[in-house]
Write a structure and sequence with these properties.
about 270 residues, Helicase, Ruva Protein, domain 3, seven-stranded mixed β-sheet, 9 strands, elongated
Length: about 270
């Protein structure tokens, strides 16, 4: 088959075709012979051949069965490249990213309709990653780099901020794709921290606190936490006082460290 087949709207395919942008992404990803790389959604392979030339190991996850078969044929003689014909939202990433290969770099041009779900899955394997270079809708990128008390600040901002330094490298206009999307895209880089930015205690409790705090943006933090699974049988007044946080504030005003404070207190209390 040919890689020139038409993009499938059902899979949210927008293939990157601008050579200058492709080269810039490769430079930003900074891939070398000691790197193990996961590329999610390689599509027609705009980035794939250059990654394969540089990386010590490359795993491709492609949901389009015809393109997966094409990549498998293209790299059949390259033992360093493997192709997984599957939906990235259903793949066991811990199996795909074995610790025996060292830390992994992720490169992806993510379909806009699943980008947030993919990010949540990547957060869960943060301990296996050294960096991520992701093409995202500019709006999504703005949210991930947002500061507290900003309308773009949200759950993914806090969760990713715990484990990564996040930077917007450059904007990619619609004309760089086929077909052209209706919005700008952004190349975002995520550099893994040597240690989490804050001590959070139990990570499940940390995630629950954050999701609860942002669940009703117009409600106060105290009201949001009332229905949280992690605060069942908890005296909220005691929790907020111990963490020196005003329960009348809204969740989006809290810093990462303040969320960590709540999580640490609840984690300690859960052990009693």
């Amino acid at each position: 088959m040919s890689s020139a087949r038409r993009p499938l709207k059902s899979l949210g395919q927008n293939f990157l075709v601008d050579r200058n942008v492709i080269d810039k992404i490769i430079r930003v990803a900074d891939i070398g012979p000691d790197d193990a790389v996961l590329e999610i959604g390689p599509g027609r392979g705009a980035l794939t051949s250059q990654i394969a030339e540089r990386a010590g190991r490359l795993v491709l996850i492609e949901f389009d069965h015809a393109l997966a078969a094409w990549h498998r044929e293209m790299f059949k003689d390259n033992q360093r490249v493997s192709v997984i014909d599957a939906d990235v939202l259903k793949v066991d990433l811990e199996t795909v990213l074995p610790l025996s290969a060292g830390k992994w770099k992720v490169v992806a041009n993510l379909p806009y309709n699943i980008s947030t779900e993919v990010l949540f899955r990547l957060i869960k394997v943060h301990d296996r990653l050294s960096s991520m270079t992701l093409m995202l809708q500019k709006e999504v990128g703005d949210r991930l780099a947002a500061a507290p008390d900003c309308s773009d600040y949200g759950v993914t901002t806090v969760l990713l901020g715990l484990w990564f330094d996040i930077h917007r490298e450059f904007i990619v206009p619609p004309g760089c794709f086929h077909p052209c999307p209706k919005v700008d895209s952004a190349i975002m880089t995520f550099s893994a921290l040597a240690a989490p930015r804050a001590v959070v205690g139990n990570e499940d409790i940390f995630r629950n606190v954050i999701k609860s705090a942002f669940s009703m943006r117009r409600k106060t933090l105290a009201n949001c936490l009332k229905s949280a699974e992690c605060t069942i049988n908890t005296d909220l007044a005691e929790l907020l006082a111990a963490c020196d946080i005003d329960g009348r504030r809204r969740g989006e005003t809290l810093s990462l460290e303040e969320f960590a404070r709540l999580s640490r207190w609840l984690s300690e209390r859960s052990k009693q």
